[in-house]
Structures are given as structure tokens and as C-alpha cells.
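FORM 7B: Structural annotation worksheet

SECTION A. Query
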Amino acid sequence: MLALKLGMSIGGSNRPMGGWTPASEGTDLVAWYKNKEGITLNGSDVSAWADSSSNSHDMVQATASEQPAYNASTGALTFDKTAVQSLQTTSQISISGDFTVGVRLDPSAVNVIILGDNTTTNEFFKISNSTTLRFKTDGSQVDITVNDGDLTDDNYLVVTRASNVVSLYVNGTLQTDTETLSGTVDIDAIGVRLNNANPYDGIIKEVQIYDSTSAELTANINTYLSTL
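SECTION B. Predicted structure
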């Protein structure tokens, strides 16, 4: 089991009272790595990012050299791919049907994993290049080509799967390309896939994972992430 280093825990709310939050979705919220919250520091680096949902899929990293840096003013975690930095959970996330994933990020490289599974092969969301997001599960993959924006910019992305149709929103804009892929999505890591492959490089501010999808949910996530 991954051990948690002793460190300083950062909590408290950074958003105003009222209005929609991921917690408004109840049991549909699978995991929420919330900006500026649930952070445990080892010096200036992150040894844990607690799940702000009720499911305790806490992401941790016991190896000091593999802990991302933290910016307290923005809540940004900065991952260095040369050090193969990542966060991982022993509490497996598996979604077999519809899902919605939202991320606020600013990558510094391509061919990098945003979310993946470091104990199960062929499970990940990857920025393949500046215009292609690759989603792979159960050994099969689809590539979504963006027609609006650059995936290496400071973006908020929302990926949805409804009845096996996979769609991508970039900064609130639905991309024309949609793909079809079934299978059980497995996630136990931020920033790598098995075995510590294609490590992420750059900033991640927030991650939201749901086992449902709807136009209303997608709109709420886009509005929420746009403010971070």
C-alpha cells in the first residue's frame, strides 16, 4: 500500500457559498480532486491530494522525488515528466457505462497521460499531440481530433461518454469529432499509466470524475472549471 508522508494538510473552502458544485451531483460523483483543497505537503511538494467526494479515492505519492510541486496561490500542481511525477490511489476507480471527466490543466509537453491506471494495462486519457486526445480502455482506443484550440494551452477539458459515444469539450466548446468506444474505464493514477509510462508534464489544477453524463452536468462543469 502506498504510504502517506507526514506533512502539512491544506483544507478549507476556496469557493463562495451557494450555486452548483460537483458535490451537487450526489452519488454520481465518483472522485473530485478539488482545487486548493485536500492537499498534504511534504515541504513544497504534494504527497497527497484527498478525494473531496465521499468515496475516498485519495491520490498519494510516498516517493519524494516523484511528488509534484504545489503553488498555494493558484492551487496548481506542477508535474515534471523527467522525474516521472504522479499521484496514485489504492482505491480503484472503474466505470463501465456513461461517464464525465473534467480537468483544468496546462500541459508543457505532448504524449503525456492526464489520467490512467498504473496497475492495469491499456487504460488512460492521453494528450497525444496538440490536436489529439487519445482515450484507451480494455485494449481499444479512439483518437479525438480537436477543431477548436490547442491541447497544450491552459485549458479546461470535459470528456463524456453517453451510450458509448465519446465527446470532447475544450473550454466549453464541443468538438466536431466524436468516437465510439465501450469498455470499463479504470483509473488509479494522475499523471501516468502502466508502468509509470508517458508521465504528465505541466500543471493540473482540478480533476472531476462522474459515472453519468447529461447536457446540464457538462454545462455546470464547464462553468465551474472556467473560474479556476
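SECTION C. Observations
Residues 1-8, 12-17 have pLDDT under 50 and may be disordered. The domain at 87-226 is CATH 2.60.120.200 (Jelly Rolls).

SECTION D. Sign-off
Analyst initials: ____
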